[in-house]
Amino acid sequence: MNEITNRLKAIRNAIKDAAQSAGRNPDEILLVGVSKRQSAAKAMAAVHAGVTILGENYIQEAVEKIETLKDLEASWHFIGHLQTNKARFAVQHFDLIHTVDSIKLAREIDKQAQKIKKIQKILIQINISQESSKSGARADDALALVRGVSLLKNVAITGLMGMPPFFDDPEQARPFFRELAQIRSKIEDAKIPNVLMDHLSMGMSGDFKAAIEEGSTMVRIGTAIFGARS
Ligand SMILES: *Cc1c(COP(=O)(O)O)cnc(C)c1O
Q1: What does this protein need as cofactor (predicted)?
Q2: Helices (DSSP H) in 94-192: which residue ranges?
Q3: Which end of the chain is more exposed for a tag (fewer CB within 10 A), N or C?
């Protein structure tokens, strides 16, 4: 588990370097430790080493892990594709849902949040990869979707999330990160009531430095902290 501490130290340094090279304050960038398909013991080790946010992709696995680790002081973020029929569990267990990409899903989250008197924080996921198989709202539909979701009383939009296609060379991901940052600016300029554009969730183990240089405020890092997934 010492390995996790060492890897984290290296990642924190890399985040700092990337922020400074872009003239940004490193404190603006939150680290989400992606614990999907990693044991509860490893997730716990990461929190003990200073990780404050854990990211999970699969509801059933996540709910079990969150139960196991219920005494742990950590914030849980849902970063996987969310099916409407699982929205209830996401609302019960997660502080932030990164992956809202349709009005239908947002309405279900709103309904479930209302039941437990919660304002559910969410990010709108944009399909910046231009691969039709990937989740996320179309960039052209982003503003209209944000306007629609903004009317829901028990949901609060706090930013955007996106994933570029996979590249070996992170430089190739950079234009996709830049595009997401531009969409964020456009939405910010629209000054929609009940909508914050505080967060840009972008960047993973292989490309977080480029993402930070392009404005990321939340990097979602799994293998670079935990090693290969089971
Ligand atoms: C798995 C996953 C990550 C973490 O990926 P790594 O390459 O292991 O850092 C980040 N974001 C999402 C949405 C994921 O599914």
Answers
A1: pyridoxal 5'-phosphate
A2: 103-115, 142-150, 174-189
A3: C
